[in-house]
Amino acid sequence: MTRLSDRIGWHPTPATLIGTGVVIGGFMLTEVSWWFIALSGLGAVGPGILREIGWLKDKDEFAQRAAQRAGYHAFLVTALAGFVIAGFTRSGERHLKNPEELATLFLALLWFTWLLSSLLAFWGARKATLRLLLGFGICWLLFCAADSWQHPLGLLMSCLPAVPFFLLAWLSQRWPRIAGVLLIAAGVSMYVFFRFWANDRGGIITQTCTAVLLVGPLLASGLALLGVRKDGESGAAV
Amino acid sequence: MKDDIRTEVRRLRFLNGEMTQEDLAARVGVSRQTIIAIEKGKYNPSVGLSLRIARTFGVRVEDVFALEDEAPREARDDEII
Q1: Residue B67's beta-bridge partner residues?
Q2: Which of A33, A68, A208, A225 is most open to solvent, judged by the fewest CB atoms within 10 Å of its CB?
Q3: Its pTM surpasses 0.90
Q4: Which positions in chain A touch B30 (Cβ < 8 Å)?
């Protein structure tokens, strides 16, 4: 366990592990009642609240500062999205599908921005991007394997979209700025190709949730890689 | 305004018996990740942590951290007698 956490450079504190367990437990219990989602909320923000009021001191100043900076990034992104959504919903007659997903969208924006910013602060742009892209690629391969393992040709074809992720992961280590530009281009292309802005199919709110999960990491990694200095270190300091 | 800080932590570690990042982290009460971030210039430590690091090496804070555009302490004219 220690070796694995040393290898990946992530040392979760007991409070973080307990919080993660409570989040997962809360999500699983939503099968019983959606009120259990509040339990997930407690697991997600509980340790942070305890740290802010000084009852929990399990992080050193760098970790604390990185978490606070990530929180500010999450605020900026979510506030911007909030203004855009306010403009969209109030500028004329809108028929939003799944308006109950609005809270999910804001939670996804908050949590994802916070997580990505924390990862970038902890690992640096290159290492974080490498791991994110490898994670993306591996998840895609696992998804394909589970979906079409009975049809070898179909499996091969459906695995092909994972190749660019692995190529970009390799490129991000050799030429980070070029990889950054390509990642941003890939993110924008995905957004346009899948028409995530359109208020059809699942509705714009659900579409934007999906865009946050798929396009967000690509754009964030791409922007972070553009800030990598010539000596290979990330330009942004905590 | 953000100052670029030059750090001598890595050099001082090696001058102090090739102290590992893990050792230094344990002595000043932070994680190894924090020492890595300080050495890479990604994180400017607090005054308290800077003092603890300097005390560990037995030097002054200015010998560990300096402004990037400042000449190294040894080469400053005003200190040459």
Answers
A1: B5
A2: A33
A3: no
A4: 60-62
